[in-house]
Design goal:
It contains three helices and eleven strands, in the order E-E-E-E-E-E-H-H-E-E-E-E-H-E. By secondary structure, it is mainly beta. The strands form two sheets. It has a six-stranded mixed beta sheet with strand order 1-3-10-5-8-11, with no helix packed on it. A five-stranded mixed beta sheet has the order 2-4-9-6-7, with no helix packed on it. The longest helix is centred in the middle third of the chain and has 7 residues. It is globular, with a radius of gyration of 15 Å.
């Protein structure tokens, strides 16, 4: 596995949330994700810049493995949320975790006011309510901002998508130039593990 990171979490989406790392096409990354209580806002890891990604491209993300932080085995671990940063902020209502943008930073209030919750992004991001991305699964994600700014989190182990458990997810990322135009990928395209 390539890079392994414990990253500051974010529970909102905004194109100006700073990246915590970069990955090249064909590269892999391990992200260590926080858990969450039932009905709490999901905490995401990232964003990760995909080197060379531009708006209109598509990133192909393979889920290589998902595991629990406590080491207990679970064959069906999967991220609850995965996606790329939106092209722009919207009126989001303020507050929230913004990764490396902290409340004492001068830009925090503006970014927090425009940042969007995961549930408000709807079908712009992939989620376990659509299909479980277990190890061996693939998702195609349209890129909206330079570098894509990929985030993932809200790990689940078992049948329910209620409470997220701390753990890790290994991803491999590939870049497809002009994939939105060439393949008409306008939203997440999920390809669950065929096995």
């Amino acid at each position: 596995m390539g890079l392994s990171l414990a990253v500051p979490g974010h529970d909102r989406w905004h194109p100006e949330i700073p990246a915590v790392a970069e990955v090249i096409t064909g590269g892999s990354v391990r992200l260590e994700c926080e858990g969450r209580e039932v009905a709490a806002e999901p905490v995401l890891c990232g964003p990760i810049v995909v080197v060379g990604a531009e708006p209109g491209d598509v990133i192909v993300v393979d889920v290589m493995g998902v595991g629990r932080a406590d080491g207990l085995y679970s064959a069906d671990g999967h991220p609850g949320i995965i996606g790329c940063a939106p092209a722009e902020g919207r009126a989001g209502g303020g507050g929230g975790l913004l990764g490396r943008v902290r409340p004492m930073d001068p830009e925090y209030a503006r970014i927090a006011g425009e940042a969007v919750r995961s549930r408000e992004r709807g079908r712009e991001i992939g989620g376990c309510t659509i299909a479980r991305l277990t190890a061996g699964s693939r998702i195609l994600l349209p890129v909206h901002v330079r570098g894509a700014k990929l985030s993932v989190g809200d790990l689940h182990f078992g049948a329910a998508c209620a409470e997220a458990v701390p753990g890790w997810v290994d991803l491999r990322v590939n870049l497809t130039r002009r994939g939105v135009e060439r393949f008409r990928v306008n939203g997440p395209m999920l390809m669950p593990d065929p096995g």
